[in-house]
Design goal:
single chain, alpha+beta, five-stranded antiparallel β-sheet, about 15% strand, rod-shaped
Length: about 200
């Protein structure tokens, strides 16, 4: 490869590292051209899967500010530069590797941190962004409905109290007048009795 071509290839890989949310390094030894095409198709818009030369990828990784990558760059290497959902891409690679054991996931990088194969597997076990957003939306709706219930509870209690008061008032109208039953007759009061005695005297 001519020097200018190498520089262009390094620049392209460096840009891919810089633009990607993460990258997963794989060894594709034993995969056919059709297998690679199927893998690219399975990743969809989540990742760009590219076969790279190890020496150029090492230079590009350093230029992109990624350290500790050299040990992963051995054997025939292809890198999935993840541009979409990182978890979905990791799941896609894991599932493809299960169906095609010749694809070996060697490790990767996420947010500038180098990950080994086990950490990539853990990443693939996480729930996707869509599922997490769905759960978050469900939790928010549950919180909103609970808040509405709590706000409506005092109103409902006031309405029940008003209904009970109205029912009681139909039985005893003096309740609405502030009384607690019919007023006592004047002759039944002690004051009325005393007044009657003083008149008789």
């Amino acid at each position: 490869m001519a020097r200018a071509d190498k520089q262009a290839a390094v620049a392209e890989i460096t840009e891919a590292f810089s633009d990607a949310a993460g990258a997963v390094l794989t060894e594709y030894r034993g995969l056919t051209v059709k297998d690679l095409r199927d893998l690219r198709r399975s990743l969809g818009e989540n990742a760009n899967y590219a076969v790279v030369k190890n020496t150029l990828a090492k230079i590009a990784a350093k230029e992109a500010g990624i350290d500790g990558f050299d040990d992963l760059l051995t054997g025939p290497t292809a890198i999935a530069f993840i541009t979409g959902d990182v978890v979905e891409a990791a799941k896609g690679l894991r599932d493809f590797a299960k169906a095609n054991p010749t694809l070996v996931i060697k490790g990767g990088v996420l947010d500038g941190n180098v990950l080994d194969a086990k950490e990539i597997a853990k990443l693939a076990d996480l729930e996707s962004r869509e599922v997490l957003l769905g759960k978050m939306a469900g939790a928010m709706l549950a919180s909103l409905s609970q808040a509405v219930y709590l706000l409506n509870a005092p109103l409902a209690q006031a309405a029940r109290l008003a209904g009970a008061l109205e029912a009681k008032a139909q039985e005893d109208p003096s309740i609405l007048a502030g009384g607690a039953g019919a007023p006592a007759a004047a002759e039944d009061t002690p004051a009325a009795d005393e007044a009657a005695e003083s008149t008789d005297a």
